[in-house]
Amino acid sequence: MDLEGQGRNPAHIKSLRDFLAALQRIDEVQGIDKEVDWNLEMGAITRRSMDLRAPAPLFNKIKGIEAGFRAFGAPGGLSANSKYKYSRVALALGLPADAPPLKVVEALKKARSKPPLPPRIVPSKGAPCKQNVLLGEEIDLLRFPTPLIHGADGGRYIQTFGLNIVRTPDGSWTNWSINRMMQLDRNRIACLIPPNQHLGIIHAKWKERGEPTPIAVALGVEPGLPYVGGMPIPEGMDEAAFLGAYFGEPLELVRAETVEIDVPATAEIVIEGHISHAETAMEGPMDEYPGYVGESGSPKPVLTVSAITFRTDPILPFSTAGAPVDENHTGWGIPHAAEILHLLQTADFPVGACWMVLESACHWLVIAARTDWHEMTGLDSRAFGQRIGELIFSSKAGFGIAKVLLIENDINVTDVEQVVWAFASRAHPSHGEIYFNEEAQNSLPVFLDSGEKFTYRTTKVIHNALLADRFPVERRPKRSDLENGWPASIGRQVIENWRAYGYR
Ligand SMILES: Cc1cc2nc3c(=O)[nH]c(=O)nc-3n(C[C@H](O)[C@H](O)[C@H](O)COP(=O)(O)O)c2cc1C
Ligand SMILES: [Mn+2]
After folding, report:
1. In whole angstroms, what is the distance from residue 56 CA to residue 63 CA?
2. Superfamily of the domain at 347-483
3. Would you say the CB of residue 464 lies under 6 angstroms from ligand 1?
């Protein structure tokens, strides 16, 4: 595999169908031929598949939906097969199915230092996403197997794992992001548009001009795109060009039918239209990434559809947000960890790894300082943590992160058991915290006070579990494990003889 080279990159999976085939080869897809209902049943099956870390369900026959139209749940879930635990994420980003998750973080981080590689426009004729084109009276969202996912949801969510593509009025920046969208009827969709997200920033620019916001929503796209759609790369940066740089080859796009936006040639479904600045409709609730049942909806801007194009026998992927681990955690948490690692390392912090604890539903970001951080910086852990907090909490990537565990690189940050142990045993109960007041925060965590949900501000914390400034190297507490607690020769002997002892 070559992520650096120019030209064709064989590791780059360019369509959802090729992604499904790659997952099928390692038994990570469960085709379901029994008829299922889009009305709660597909969501519940997907929920259980994630709870069991079973293969991702591909729904082949959906009640009341024309034959051939399919839906795909848990596209970014984890696997119970420990070898392939992160395979859906790794394959999506061009890594081997058994790549460890920090390789994914490293690869995304590394691409942040490469020059963007803008997409290539290919002819519409022959592009899979143009096999069927619905215009005018033919437009009908209700033909698609849009799930009513959870029992408390305010409606059917057609967009939970696709890309919202919007361009600034001057054409200088095209943003690709995941923000949920709820289907209202044949040709209208209610859109969640947080003002600080890039979709909101570009929507505001169109409002200033007095024109509705042109948008294309690409569903069932090449598998890497949702991960850059969930990544907080800076304002002004085109996620498609970033993914092009990541793979060392440009993405292939075609021009949409009714808006001046280019869309992925292999997308399963593309919805085109304009988002109003005046018309609203009730949207929500939907169960969210913190892992709780949704509570209430609110009025949101309406997207009126001007075209739908789709592949023959289209596949609609969807995410069943809720208790961890789902793609709200893998698709949001992993790219956020990569962005934060990039920010820290380009600011010369001696940091070795960064990880969002998926099991915490993205509430704990873990940063592993290099074990020589103290000598490198000359700072004590409070001052070091203070600087790290200032950088993270003032970044867009830090908007959803209120709790950071600062540990050292002797811990494998992706091993939740090691992280719990290090945090529990190393952070001091009274002065182990460094607080940051009135920091910007999204309104979703349930720990927020009721007022904080409206001010979008809260107190954030670094849990200081660093050792290097408290113990000289030779007296630093060492983890009592096979590697550190016994002479190396005994450890080797035990491993070599493991089967001889009778273990299998
Ligand atoms: C599966 C999934 C669903 C998401 N849903 C939403 C959402 O509904 N609203 C939202 O603001 N962000 C959502 N996000 C997070 C954003 O995609 C993420 O913050 C991203 O950085 C936004 O793009 P931007 O940086 O271009 O604004 C979701 C992420 C994932 C992976
Ligand atoms: Mn963006």
Report:
1. 19
2. UbiD C-terminal domain-like (3.40.1670.10)
3. no
pLDDT at 133: 98
Residue 43 to residue 74: CA distance in whole angstroms: 10
Ligand 1 pocket residue status of 177, Cβ below 6 Å: yes
Phi-psi region of 137 (alpha: psi -120 to 50; beta: other; left: phi over 0): alpha
Q: Is the pLDDT assigned to residue 2 strictly greater than 60?
A: no
Among 100, 174, 161, which residue's Cα sits nearest to residue 331?
A: 161
Q: What angle do CA 266, 17, 47 make, to 5 degrees?
A: 115
CB 200 near ligand 1, within 6 Å: no
What residue type is 271 in one-letter code?
I
CA distance 186 to 373: 58
* Bridging pattern class, strands 163-167 and 298-310: unpaired
Best of 153, 174, 179, 202 to mutate for ligand 1, by most ligand atoms within 8 A of CB?
Answer: 179
Specify the residue with its C-alpha closest to ligand 1, atom 6.
179
Q: Looking up tokens 């096999």, which residue turns up?
A: 131
pLDDT tens sequence across 278-325: 999 999 999 999 999 999 999 999 999 999 999 999 999 999 999 999
Q: What CA–CA distance (Å, rounded) separates 378 from 391?
A: 18
**Residue with the nearest Cα to atom 20 of ligand 1?**
230
Q: What is the pLDDT of residues 132-168, one digit of tens each?
A: 999 999 999 999 999 999 999 999 999 999 999 999 9
Find where tokens 């001052």 sit.
Answer: 383
Which residue has a Cα nearest atom 12 of ligand 1? 179
Quick one: CATH architecture of 16-318? Answer: Roll (2.30)
- Residues identified as active-site: 288
Q: Which ligand is nearest to the CA of 444?
A: 1
Q: To the nearest whole number, what is the mean pLDDT of the chain?
A: 97
Q: What is the pLDDT of residues 41-58, one digit of tens each?
A: 999 999 999 999 999 999
CA distance 203 to 173: 12
CA–CA dist 296, 340 (Å, integer): 32
Query: How far apart (Å, rounded) are the C-alpha atoms in residues 427 and 423?
Result: 6
The domains of the chain are located at 16-318, 347-483
Residue 328 in contact with ligand 1 by CB distance below 6 A: yes
Write the burial class of residue 295 (CB in 10 Å: 0-12 exposed, 13-18 middle, 19+ buried): exposed
pLDDT at 5: 42
End-to-end CA distance of the chain: 34
SS3 state of residue 502: coil
Average pLDDT value for residue range 377-390: 98
H-helix segments, 356-415: 373-377, 381-393
**In this prediction, what percent of the chain has a pLDDT beyond 70?**
99
Residues composing the chain:
504
Q: What is the mean pLDDT of residues 217-243?
A: 98
- Matching CATH topology for 16-318 and 347-483? no
